[in-house]
Amino acid sequence: MVLSPDQIWSYVVPVTPPARDDRRDRTSALVVGSLGVFVALTAFTTSLADAPTLGRELAAGTAGQIWILSSMSVGLAASLLVVGVLGDDRGRRLIFVGGALLLTAGSVLCAVAQEPVAFVLGRVVEGVGAAALVATSLAMTSFFFPTPAERATAGAVWGASVSAGIATGPFLPGLLDASVSWRAPYVVLAVLGLLVAAAGTRLRETFADHRRALDLPGAVTFGGAMTVLLVALVESRGPSGPLVTTVLVLLAAALAVAFVVVERRRDHPMLDLALFTRPDFTATHVAGLATGTGVIAVMSYSASHLTNGLGASTLVAAGALAAWSVPSTVFALLARRLPASLQGLRQLALGLALCTAGQLVLAVTAASTSVATMLPGFVVAGVGTGFLNAALGREAVATAPPGRGGLGSGVNNTARYLGSAIGVTVVGLVATAFADPADGWRAAALITAATSAVGALVVLTLSGAAARRSRQGVPA
Question: How far apart are CA 89 and CA 403, in angstroms?
Fold first, then answer.
């Protein structure tokens, strides 16, 4: 007996059977959306294991190397909320396909770059494209998987795609640098972006239930605040000096205040700030922020520690990162089998707690010069990250206003990648402040572990508050 693609998929991801046409639409949305986020995260992590090579080949100084590693985060965090809301109001498929084409364009710029500025520009463009893929893929998926049980399954697949992309990115330069060229990974990303764009054109277009006019003042002030803050974080690690960083932080704060003022005065704001009075909404995005400042930050720096501190090769560093990201992929898929008492917001708290444990193990094994002794810490943190990735997307949509999945995804992923930018900055400053790389790594791992632990406690507390409100009949 030959099974159709839909029948095969039903065994992999069992869901309540919908009407025939809806089944095709929902399968396409989940498969193509997950492919999009896989490519986006692959692009995000491609340069992590290859920073020394990129710095050498592009003749980048200290500031240039910092920007090479951080530039995609600027594009991501600055645009996630805006593209998520645009997807809800202008069409998620439209923004998704546009994002794939932007990622392709950015990858081409990186592949042909002859100096650091062009490469950094390419990474920023990649970041904007990746933001569109991440935010709209989750919103599209939530449209076709409306019930909590279906969203749990779809969220697990989406979260596994995040983890799989993180796992794949470092291997591209590890496998292609020596055999082809440092440019080859970006050619591969450009081709993948085109494939995702082509697949995206076949999706059914979806919109929010109530489409709104573009909140241009909100988009400009929010995007400006995020961009300036991220530039300040990057410059704080370079030779610019504290004065430049301080001026940029003050400008970012002024733009953030302007955003709040603008949103409070608009009848239909891009982001209704009253949502943060709900414990469930706040808990979800606190978890995203804690994920970025904690486990993602320390893992982003780990490749540099392994290659520069322990003398490991790019391929070995990628393999060590796989000890984190592969369990993350597997446990994102298994997360839907957790008992009901450990799902929802409690799953977020559990994931953060496991990430805390993994980072503490990494701190304890810091004195070792063997990559193998660090693997248990990577694995435990990977299990926790898998639970987080599966739950963050699901809860971001579930706690957002009805039909505004792009908004929920945009806010959550902004929190995650802004947290990552902050965390990477802190980790880089702390780790390089010590003469002994092992001491620097230990201190950084302890700081990020503390961040994860605080995040777990806050989420657990807010989870209890949301449950009490629900029992009282008040929206969580």
Answer: 10
